[in-house]
Amino acid sequence: MRSARNSPLAREFCLVYALLIVYATLHPWTGWRDSGLSPWAWLSKWPRVTLPFDLGLNAAAYFPFGASVVLALAARWRLLVAVPVAVALGVLLSGGLESLQTYLPSRTPSLADLAANVAGSLAGALVAALGLKWVGGGAITQAAGSWIDPAPVAARALILAGLWLFAVLFPESLLFGHGSLIAWLGPVTGYPFTPAEFVRVETAVTGASLFAAGALVASALAPSAPRLLLVLAFVIAAGAVRTLSQVVLFPPEHVLAWMTPGALRGLGGGALALCLVFFLPRAMLLTLAAIAVTFCTVVVNFAPPNPYYAATVQELNPGRFLNFNGLTQLVSTAWPYLVLLWVPFALAAAGRRPG
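Above: the chain's sequence. Below: its structure in token form.
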């Protein structure tokens, strides 16, 4: 029986998550200047005003970091050592980023933020340690751990699928329409689409993107895993994440605005396609995922802006989630290109090992 502790998934997730924290903390990465203050001056003074919501958000952001550090170290280190190391890394990461914020006029370093971040790291580390201690050896946990192939290529496929889910939080005009460069390069074509044509475009983009991400999940699963059940759970999670984005960023009346005819058809089509191919070998699944990503990205960038979405976008209110929204936009834009860069290496690895 494979141990969840021996999987490279936790180690690689920890690294990727740390990079996401760095980007979000230093967003928008512009306007750097020397204010004449020491980068450590913020450590000497507790802020006069602290907002519980912001502190809670900071703690929640560092919770997965602390947990992933413990899970990454648990294969070789005792839990009594892994937890303090996770907290120490949280202190170093948060403290370093807060100091760098001294040079960003749009950001304000805060001792309260450091405290919240460290508290989140500690909470995540403790929960992960207790989980490993109490249920890590249970039959259910061992069975679940055996569902994931232990190869590094499988871990990276799952991380890319997780990034796809994370990118769904950004409200693209086409559901799951990742990889759009229109915001930076402008529209490629000015050809106006009719409402019926937009429905067909969104159906194609939604279905292809969902299929690509689901194929990555299926490629990471071991033969003993309930592949169909897990792939369908991933489809449901995609809809739930998109709904959560609407709840956070839009007024209540727009919570289900993403459920357009094209989006619903795409969800159904993508899910059906996944049900037909989930049993295929890893190399074939990765190849199909790359084809679907390529198709989706081309359509997203060549389709003209959706005027029917403009009214909804005007209601967008990132508010306190502004920096988080910038992070989700970055991941949404970069995701297809990361997949296309990674798939050739994954196929080479799959060719050396039975899929």
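The chain has two domains: 4-146, 152-352.
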